[in-house]
Specification:
The protein has about 350 residues and is of the alpha+beta class. It is built from 12 helices and 12 strands. The strands form 3 sheets. The protein has a 5-stranded antiparallel sheet, with helices on both faces. It has a 5-stranded mixed sheet with strand order 7-9-10-12-11, covered by helices on one side. A hairpin with a 5-residue loop joins strand 4 and strand 5. The chain is elongated. The protein starts with a helix and ends with a strand.
């Protein structure tokens, strides 16, 4: 009998100790955090939650989350807690709560007992209001720029082409400037499309793509130039198979970079190689064109695009760098053994 009493006291001590550790961990979280039961009722709230809701734990305990956060008697439609109950995994949702005029990243995380049964849940609310506002500002400015530029460029290209088509007395002197004007407008139009890809890659959740698929897409993207005799292209994959963080934007942009090198730097031959190690896939684009000046390489390494490199396709190099970095990769510009440029693209394995 005495041993049973001692055993019970040991268990009670352990329970008290575990509870204290839980409470200490709870208070260490700076975001509003609840411990909830399966009936959506609050068991415990940390100090951040009490301050945010301007109510002590005594006033929160026993109440439903939807009641204290959303002023509703039942869970909201996109409630991550409901999904977590069903999936038995952690679930996330970004929500706007008009009561506070704030955006939150809400996470519901199940807690299992020693038998593997769901007993309680953590419910965390991370304030992402400033991030969402910045995203909306960027989206507005981007859409304004894209729509206005697309309209103006389309009209400009059309009018210039009409002038060329309808000139009665065509001379080399009159046509060349007009053709250059059409080309500049077309490049600007292409740049707008490229910027769109950057914005899309920033908004995309990290996805994956096969590294061999990227090489194949680059080859396909250059197919017309190869058929026209404008480019001699060789692709060596070395049997790479790894999946990397990224999307088809990467291969689209690398194909565009090759085209810009042909247009601006007198490139005739390009070698594209791929190899991989445990963590990364390295794709190299090596050409025989003009070298990239050291001063230009330094500008390409800068955080901000200044426009100084626009004459040789700089905006497209910056765009490629931005998209690749959005997927946790990196890009370097070096001299090649073929006499031109070597572009090293490091992509993180997924």
């Amino acid at each position: 009998m005495e041993s049973k009493i001692k055993s019970k006291k040991v268990i009670e001590k352990r329970d008290i100790s575990d509870r204290k550790r839980l409470e200490a961990a709870f208070e260490a979280v700076e975001d509003p955090l609840f411990l909830m039961n399966k009936d959506h009722r609050i068991i415990m709230a940390n100090e951040a939650a009490e301050k945010f809701l301007a109510e002590g734990s005594e006033g929160l305990n026993g109440k439903m989350c939807c009641e204290v956060v959303h002023d509703k008697s039942e869970p909201i439609q996109n409630c991550p807690f409901l999904r977590s109950l069903e999936s038995e995994f952690a679930e996330d949702e970004e929500i706007y709560e008009s009561k506070f005029d704030k955006y939150f990243h809400v996470r519901a995380h199940p807690i299992y007992d020693e038998n593997g049964d769901m007993r309680e849940f953590f419910h965390q609310m991370i304030d992402i209001t400033e991030r969402k506002k910045e995203e909306k500002r960027k989206e507005f400015l981007y859409n304004l720029f894209r729509q206005d530029m697309n309209n103006k460029l389309s009209g400009s290209i059309g009018y210039l082409q009409l002038i060329i088509d309808e000139l009665d007395e065509i001379t080399v002197e009159s046509v060349n400037p007009l053709e250059k004007a059409v080309q500049v407008n077309q490049e600007a139009y292409e740049l707008v499309s490229t910027i769109k890809k950057v914005v899309k890659s920033e908004k995309d959740q990290i996805s994956t793509i096969g590294s061999k698929e990227i090489l194949q897409a680059i080859e396909d993207g250059c197919e017309d130039m190869v058929k026209k005799g404008e480019l001699e292209l060789k692709v060596e994959s070395h049997e790479i198979r790894g999946e990397v963080k990224g999307s088809s934007f990467i291969s689209d942009l690398l194909s565009t970079v090759i085209k810009k090198r042909i247009e601006k730097s007198r490139v005739e031959r390009v070698l594209v190689t791929g190899e991989e190690n445990e963590d990364e896939v390295l794709i190299q684009i090596i050409d025989d064109g003009e070298k990239i000046l050291e001063s230009t390489k330094r500008r390409l390494a800068q955080d901000d695009y200044t426009g100084e490199t626009s004459g040789f396709g700089g905006p497209f190099y910056f765009t490629a760098r931005e998209v690749i970095e959005n997927y946790d990769g990196r890009i370097n510009f070096e001299d090649s053994e073929m006499g031109g440029a070597k572009i090293d693209i490091y992509l993180q394995k997924s």
